[in-house]
Amino acid sequence: MSTKERASSEAMIEMSDGSNNPMQADLSSPIEDLESSVPEQESEEVKKSRLSRVNNVIQKVLMTPIIPDGPWTLPPSLSFGSHTHIPRYFISVCKFSIYSYYFTLFTHWMIRELNYEHDPTYEWDVFLTYDLHSSALDLFVFFVVGRLWSDGRCGVDSLGFILPSATGAWFFSAMAEWPWARHNVSMHQIMCMWPDKLFVFVGFMSSCFAFVSFMHVYKGFKDGIIFGRLLEFSFTFLVFAYPIGASPFFHFHHWFAAWLVGMHFNQKYWWSYTVLALCFGVYVNGIAGYGRDSLLGCQMAYYNSKQQKCGHLKSEETVFCFYEELPTGYNTSVNFETLNSTIEGNQFFGFGEPQPLDWRNCSAGGGGH
């Protein structure tokens, strides 16, 4: 056999063997891959379908409002003979106002029914007389900046808003049952009176807050809204916090902290909306438990008394404070000068221009919430 015939014979043997046949390899490989991948593809599709159904159920349960958000169109029989269009934002603000009022009323009752820490003199009629107006303005700003009027958000009458807000209103009062948590956020309290457990707790909560804030910044960059949101936050901070923050009497009440920060958790994601509702509950807790106390404390009380020329002013520089059944050793947030005057067991104190507590040497004092 010649060399040419021998080479041709070896080539025929290799092709019949199939090990080096490119056509056979191309035909068999896709079929084998398809057979092996079909069960996996079906399994992935089933998983995705199942997760999608679960997510839809959760969305429907949590996000569906009791009353539709609108827009509404009233029939002629209810609108003086013509169809009347009621926009969504109008329905939303009405629902938010009604929910806020009755939620505050319920929280006021709950705190006292469960005997959580509260101001026993702060009755509901006191709220209506002194704090309703200011609280209504707070809630209007919260509604606008928090974008509770926007499409794609669950209504305030849905479980997605009710459950987090109720949790915030309850937890902040329940937390006060821990002895180490019964302190406020002021320089004197932080530097002189906070226990180690409270520092640990605040550190943990600050870490959670930092993570949520980071997620908002990250999503803000991704959605192209970060600069608008930062401008919005800067404006509200400059208007509501900066002018009074420099005062040594400034007291960072938890109602104010939750209100100022909470309304900026206003992105379209469920976790952002949940944090906003949680902060709303903390705000309501502060108002219902203690009232909408002034951020400047006795400085504001002295200013109002002096400006209004109230009858209890001794002079332009001195004002009298009245306490019923004042306990022995009671410390206040101003330096009082005891007067030699006691009437039927009630003691009067007088003070001039109020002086803040000195946190640098931890002078005696406290109070606040």
UniProtKB/TrEMBL annotation:
Identification of the protein by name: Uncharacterized protein
Domain of life of the native organism: Eukaryota
- Give residue spans, biased composition: Polar residues: 17-27
Q: Which UniProt keywords apply?
A: Membrane, Transmembrane, Transmembrane helix
Give TM segment ranges.
89-111, 131-149, 161-178, 198-218, 230-250, 270-290
* Record organism: Triparma columacea
Disordered: annotated span: 1-46
- Signal sequence extent: none
